[in-house]
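### Sample
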Amino acid sequence: MKLYPLQFEPILKERIWGGEKLKTLLHKPITSNITGESWELSTVEGDVSIVANGELKGKSLTELINSFPNEILGTAVHIRFGKQFPLLFKYLDAREDLSIQVHPNDELAKKRHNSFGKTEMWYIMQADDNARIIVGFKENSNAEEYLENLENKTLLSILDDVKVKSRDVFFLETGTVHAIGAGLVVAEIQQTSDITYRLYDFDRLDANGNTRELHVDLALEAINYNKVETKKLYTTNSNQSNTVVDCPYFTTNFIPLDGAISVSKSGESFTVYMCVEGSFEIEYNHSKIQYTKGETVLIPAAMNAFILNGKASILEIYIS
């Protein structure tokens, strides 16, 4: 099998808080004005990505991994995760605030849901004036204080509220209470998991006049009640992979591309590129494929030498 850079059909999700920026800014084929998420690369059950380009068009990511685990995932990733794709990649458009929520760690998620936990990072692609996020507690807290404020509808008073701008990065370990605020477009990288415990939803009603389910009891054991530092500072040296996040679940680099750079890989892990600004092309095996802002490409681990060329800001993600 001759592998090549793989793109996938976006899996579009309507959300009560979604909008239209995935179309206007990222050119996704949305048909609803409440589209909140574009899942770019997923093997979540019921939402498995389908190849959109080349000879393998129409095949699912799961099929490819089952047939070519070392070539797609990489030798080290295959040993560690078997034939599971361990990450989930998304773009989000928050027209309104998302619910205040938390994700369980691996141990709790395995015990309760037979799933991975959900460590994640956000790269802010676009921010309206005064846009903000909620990340963790203002000061160290505890379950009693949290429950009291939740009951009194004063939870926001003890949570940390952070103003954000484009290119900001936030790394959220499991247990961090958080919410993406209104007016943000975000690139999200996370463990493969769709487990979210919703703590508070601003008493919103859905299209049928119902409030959304809360998971207060499930969240109690999952929450980290200590103050956390989530913002990541990083360098922006041109034509280099600048490390942004390096954690056990994934490494994310920021590449300000201006011209051409040669890339060599070991074959131990797949690589994913998310184009967050501008456009670039990948030169491989005497062919060139173009990518623009809002596109995501999976480089199979067997592709160990290629060239990136263009003027773009790129997130480079792999497992080390």
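The mean pLDDT is 96. This sample (Phosphohexomutase) is used throughout the tutorial notebook.
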